Amino acid sequence: MNNSSLRHLGKNLGRGVLYILLILGGLVMIVPFAWMISTSLKSGQYVLSMPPQLIPNPATLDSYRRIFELYPIGRMLFNSLFVAGLVTIGQLVTCSMAAYAFARLKFRGHNFVFLLYLATLMVPFQVTITPLFIMMRIFGWINTYQGLILPGVFSAFGTFMLRQAFMTIPTEYEEAAYMDGASPLTIFLKIILPLSKPALATLSVFAFMGSWNSFMWPLFIVREETLMTLPVGLATLQGRWLTEWNLVMAGAVITVLPMLLLYLFAQKYLVQGYVMSGLKG
User: Fold this and answer.
1) b/e map of 158-190 (b: 16 or more CB within 10 Å)?
2) In terms of DSSP H, where are the helices of the chain?
3) 103 touches 163 (CB < 8 A)
4) Taking the model in full, what pTM does it have?
């Protein structure tokens, strides 16, 4: 066997090992979701049966019916959608404007200001949650949508990601627009944003997922059940002495399903957004 055949065989073996590892990794990621769905379709007496059954027998939707009867899941779902949607829109507005200023508008000390703004990423949210809660109390925004939404509409990570994407756009487009008499606002709205759709879509997914899965801040700021989001409401399903895990898993499925649909819809934009922003795994 010559060297070329050996190299070809080695490449095929390496590719085969890689595929096997990817399949195993995929199974590791899928099994918890499969178990979650399976448990949500079981009756209470079969949830902890031994040996465990991955395929429920009999399968029933009774857990979903009961969870809507016992808890205001519909209201919590609306709250999560409403809050996550407005947070996403707010981040798109604030982050895109800040990113354009840092990427294109040259002012004295703009690099220092950007690094200072970026340094806030190193501050854990647990450090800022107490002063932020005090601010919300002073404003009278405890148990309000304003308190849930406004702290989340600013993102240093979103600004950084969009700045990197804006810097990949050739300046010749803007120079030509300036020669035609366009203002910075017109260039921002008519040139920069349309050319950055993949990055904006990526930020939309990150912002929506971050707000949708947020637990600590809604737990602090909201006391009324009518304002609870799904993660907080799902935590109330776990009893002190007894937990109906089929109801908990049904609530988890309801929580995860919108995120799964959003990811499947925006998958191609995520890849393009990573390329434009220069982010690497």
Assistant:
1) bbbbbbbbbeebeeeebeebeeeebeeeebbee
2) 3-40, 62-70, 73-104, 110-119, 125-139, 145-149, 156-167, 171-179, 184-187, 193-195, 197-213, 216-221, 230-235, 245-277
3) yes
4) 0.80
How far, in Å, are 102, 120, 185 from residue 109 at the CA level? 10, 17, 22
Region 95-100: mean pLDDT is 92
Using alpha carbons only, give the angle 224, 227, 230 rounded to the nearest 5 degrees: 115
- For 104-129, what is each residue's pLDDT tens digit? 887 787 788 888 888 888 888 888 88
Average pLDDT over residues 61-82: 87
Instruction: Please report where in the chains the tokens 């944003």 appear, as a residue.
Output: 193
Residue type for position 116? L
Q: Does the CA dihedral 30-35-36-40 come out positive or negative?
A: positive
Cα separation, 57 vs 46, whole angstroms: 9
Locate 138 and state its tokens: 């002073």
Per-residue pLDDT tens over the stretch 151-194? 999 888 999 989 988 888 888 888 888 888 888 888 888 888 88
* Residue 238 C-beta-side C-alpha neighbours within 13 Å: 6
| CA 42 – CA 77 distance, rounded (Å) | 23
Tokens 């017109």, residue located: 186
Question: 257 vs 20, 35, 82, 208, CA distance in Å?
Answer: 28, 15, 16, 13
Residue range 191-244, pLDDT digits in tens: 888 888 888 888 888 899 899 989 889 988 988 888 889 888 888 776 644 677
Q: Which fold, 66-277?
A: MetI-like fold (1.10.3720)
Greatest CA span in the chain, whole angstroms?
Answer: 79
